[in-house]
Predict the structure of Two-component transcriptional response regulator, NarL/FixJ family.
Amino acid sequence: MSRDGTATVAGPIRVLVADDEPMIRAGVRAVLATDPGIEVVAEAADGHEAVELVRAHRPHVAVLDVRMPRTDGIDAAAEIRRTLPGTGVVMLTTFGEDDYILRALGIGAAGFLIKSGEPEELLAGVRAVADGAAYLSPKVAARVVAHLASTGAGALAERRGAARERVAGLTPREREVLAHLGGGLSNGQIARRLHLVEGTVKAHVSSVLARLGVDNRAAAAVVAHEAGILPPPPPEHR
């Protein structure tokens, strides 16, 4: 997988689900089963088992609970991203786990979902990450920005000012691309929205990541939210 997270999935999206609560796993599996283009290939009850099953099944996406016994979701995600970069990682979090979200962001997790969120968000997140995009549920994005503002990194106004300064170095087209990154769109989706060739979008994404000084699309999405760059609404279908 390239630095901008580009991935191509042929056939059903193969997913591993890891959570230490059987009822949560069953619920996630049931939601994913509503999409005929998604196939759950394995379930794990802890992070160690999740890593082993990812090695065995090579899924396109691993959906990991943040808090699990033996090996937690963050350490499991780090190991998966280090040794099996072809598998994208979606983290399932609850309110109050902001520090875990920031740690997961730092090790390259591409999707962040709140367990109490809408089922449609889970489907959208898995599809986005499988397609090489990043997906931050609106609630997660808001909490990340608010939490960053409450840490030693500075007040919210200062962080927003710093984010705007970083974004100021982008070209108008790169700002457009960043806005769509903030909305969780893949390179192909951005290309269609902006009427560009996908290879051109890929180059813009790489440039955006380099100019912002971030390593992945999810981190770029956080900068977009901090800078107040909101994803544009989807086009109306007539």
